Amino acid sequence: MNRNDSVAVITGASSGIGEATARRLAVAGLHVTLIARRLERLQNLKTQIEAAGGRAKVIVADLSREVDRIRVFESVQADGGADVLINNAGFGWYGYFKEMPWKTALEMLQVNVGAAVHLTSLFLPEMQKQNHGHIINIGSISGSIPSQGTAIYGASKSFLDSFTTALYRETRGTKVNVSVVRVGPVLTEFCETALGRENSGHVPTEKIGVTAEHVAQRIWQLWLHPKRVIYIPRWLGVTPWVELSFGWLEDWIGPLLLKLNYKT
Ligand SMILES: NC(=O)c1ccc[n+]([C@@H]2O[C@H](COP(=O)([O-])OP(=O)(O)OC[C@H]3O[C@@H](n4cnc5c(N)ncnc54)[C@H](OP(=O)(O)O)[C@@H]3O)[C@@H](O)[C@H]2O)c1
User: Fold this and answer.
1) Which of 45, 126, 262, 263 lies at a C-alpha separation of 20 to 30 Å from 196?
2) Residue of 47, 31, 32, 38 lying closest to 14 (CA atoms)
């Protein structure tokens, strides 16, 4: 395989981590397939990537919809298939679960979990047939520390952790890699998008975090040197240990923090 001719399919490429990752991989010579709902954003990104000498393709899709995911897969296959699939599309919501509209919870499960699982089920067998490939799922440290205020979001990321680990163990020893990126706070539109949703409060981490470009650089390195899991930033590798050792403390402090933060 010539790495420079590799095709990377990136969901949620219209902003934040997905956009920065598409730019980074395009600079490295990969052909990037950009997927999201906002056509104008994707087209602008494609134009910029091509102006810089890269190659990009746009597929507009609402990944909460099964029919759109299948269309994405068929379109990518028609062009020769994918070498890398980055399941990045996702969104959050902050507040008491009882305040979360079911419509939002369902959409979150459809995008954060459903799209990643469905696209993986479509692309993984093709990667196994071609005997190479890498599936990278964008998780969160919320998957390791279940937190008040992000019940469905954290559970969706825990699902991705478990799903990825299982697939990693199923594919170990083959040339198909599966990884999860456990990301801490990143300065993107993530918090603003959450706040725009019905009944959501401000995500407490909205003013802190690493840049999307930093995450993109780590994803690029992950592709070069595949691993089951990476943490961004690295020191957040302590999070599973924190939950095991201090979960009892969060049982006490967590409810107070949510009471103070929600809708203030
Ligand atoms: N930012 C953080 O602090 C943070 C921390 C940990 C993990 N993460 C994870 O990182 C990933 C990327 O988030 P981000 O921070 O880059 O946020 P972002 O800037 O809001 O980007 C989210 C992306 O997901 C896409 N998306 C959302 N719903 C979609 C749908 N129904 N169909 C297709 N695309 C959809 C959006 O595109 P359209 O709106 O154009 O469809 C957008 O491109 C998410 O999985 C998030 O959970 C973020």
Assistant:
1) 45
2) 38
